[in-house]
Write a structure and sequence with these properties.
The chain is of the alpha+beta class and about 130 residues long. It has one domain: Zincin-like. It contains six helices and three strands, in the order ααβαββααα. α1 packs across α5. The radius of gyration is 15 Å and the shape is globular. It starts with 6 loop residues before the first helix and ends with a helix.
Length: about 130
């Protein structure tokens, strides 16, 4: 049975997940906005290459750090969006949603640092 949590509780889970990332890495995330949305839009599903009937828990939009030059034009902030609705539907307990939010946040932060899906799968974050 899906779990439902308030936006406040969900935001706290996202904050906890971010806090679990080692400080040296968090310090390199100064131009990344973390956003919580209820559900992905059709455009976000398309960007991620996900069929509308499949789940999308999170989405990184930006230029990964490893693809940036030493001298670069000012960039708009990268975005990591965490989708509350699909995560709630997939989880049946507070412990399960806490772990899945953590996995999702780490997965999307890893994209910011340039890791692709294959590397994430090798680490168990697929």
């Amino acid at each position: 049975m899906p779990i439902e949590v308030s936006r406040k509780v969900f935001a706290r889970l996202v904050e906890e997940a971010l806090a679990s990332i080692p400080e040296p890495l968090r310090a390199r995330m100064d131009n990344v906005g973390i956003i919580i949305e209820d559900w992905p839009t059709p455009e976000q599903l398309e960007t991620a290459g996900v069929d509308p009937e499949d789940d999308l828990f999170g989405l990184y939009e930006g230029i990964p750090l490893i693809e940036r030059g030493i001298v670069a034009d000012p960039l708009l902030p990268d975005r990591i969006t965490i989708f509350q609705g699909p995560l709630e539907e997939a989880c049946g307990s507070e412990e399960e949603i806490r772990e899945e939010v953590r996995r999702t946040v780490i997965h999307e932060v890893a994209h910011h640092f340039g890791m692709d899906e294959s590397a994430l799968a090798d680490l168990g974050y697929d």
